[in-house]
Amino acid sequence: MLPDILSGSRCWRVSMKEVTIDEIKKILGSREERIRELWRRSRGLYEELENHEELIKSVSLPSSNSLYENQLNEKNRDLFDVIIRQKQLGYEQEQEIGQLLLEINGEIEQINRIWICYQMLRGRPFHIVTRLYVDRELYRIVETESRMNHRAFETMRKNALESIKANYESKETTIELIRKI
Q1: Euclidean distance between CA atoms 35 and 38, whole angstroms
Q2: In whole angstroms, what is the distance from residue 91 CA to residue 84 CA?
Q3: Hey, CA dihedral for 28, 115, 162, 105, is it positive or negative?
Q4: Long-range contacts from 27-30, C-beta under 8 angstroms, 24+ separation
Q5: Beta partners for 12?
Q6: Any residues with CB less than 8 A from the CB of 114 and at least 6 apart, and which?
Q7: Do 1 and 16 meet the contact criterion of CB atoms below 8 Å apart?
Q8: Helices marked H in 72-122 — which ranges?
Q9: Mean pLDDT by 10 residues, the chain (181 residues)
Q10: Which of 56, 103, 132, 138 is buried deepest, with most CB atoms within 10 A?
Q11: What is the pLDDT of residue 46?
Q12: What are phi and psi of 111, to 5 degrees?
């Protein structure tokens, strides 16, 4: 899952992963904490990436040629092989870190898209979802204060969550969803 990219008047989105109602509830209840944790992990990975770049620079040798290689004695050749292998490992780790950063970005985009879909709710459904999952109030209290019978309350709650899920999984870009708020 990658972020929407706004380029001039064009906007595209790579398909988002499917989400469950339980995941939506968890995200609504812990959005800020989750984003803070993802940013913390992201910063740590960027620092690790910088360290790898410094390591690669420090072990870099001028490009070899056959004359240079022929002049190396066995001891130097072993050291040269270790340096080359260290460089290869560094590049592989950079690729892994890059993949982890993409995954973190995808999680942040998922959280933001779900939040946007939640903000698209209006009226009573919005207030019910807010109190139950964002503010984490007790179900019984929210239901009682809504002055709705149990069946109507439960139907409205379920429909609101299904609406969030449907909008999240829609083919619309995040920008298009924002415009509907």
Answers
A1: 5
A2: 11
A3: negative
A4: 27/110, 27/111, 27/114, 27/115, 28/114, 28/115, 28/118, 28/129, 28/133, 28/134, 29/133, 29/134, 29/136
A5: 5
A6: 19, 24, 27, 28, 164, 168
A7: yes
A8: 74-119
A9: 38 64 97 95 87 64 50 65 77 87 93 97 97 97 96 98 96 93 89
A10: 132
A11: 86
A12: -60, -45
pLDDT value, residue 152: 97
pLDDT of residue 72: 56
The whole-number pLDDT of residue 7 equals 34
Q: What tokens does 24 get? A: 């939506």
Contact 87, 56 (CB under 8 A): yes
> To which residue do tokens 């590049």 refer?
91
Quick one: tokens of 28?
């609504």
Instruction: Give the CA angle between residues 52, 58, 59 to the nearest 5°.
Output: 95
Q: Which of 109, 93, 117 is nearest to 166 (CA)?
A: 117
The candidate with the shortest Cα–Cα distance to 169, out of 3, 11, 18, 43, is 18
* Tokens found for residue 126: 């919005």
Q: Residue 164 in contact with residue 22, Cβ under 8 Å?
A: no
Strand 5-7 with 10-12, pairing? antiparallel
